[in-house]
Amino acid sequence: MKKLLPKTNSNPQGFTLFELLVVISILAILGIIGITIYTGTLNKARDAKRKADIEAMAGAMEANYVSGSGYPTSLNATWFSDQTVPTNPSPGGATYATSFNTSSGFVFCASLENSTGNATTSVGGGATTSGNWYCKRNAQ
Hints:
This protein is of the alpha+beta class.
């Protein structure tokens, strides 16, 4: 004799709402972690470019030092391999903090996003290891 009860599905073909919410929550958490790591990496990359630019500008000035007359009073684009003076990567502005004086030399500084720099202020700042500025002075 057949039972008149409704047939139960012993092999469900979908996910419950709770299972979907758990999976979505896990994916959201992983996405937030990934975005945080990605933005931190971008900040570090921009800081590395700023430091490299400051080193390149200082190297160009040192290469164009003339004994007896001192340093040039500005950067020349032809001193760089790509024929342009380095600019600050965004966000952060279009130029670096600079100071030129043929008798006393030059100072180039860049404000860093994450890294610890070697100065507490921009041009003319003292050399420390706890500032947000990375500066390079003339060697002569």
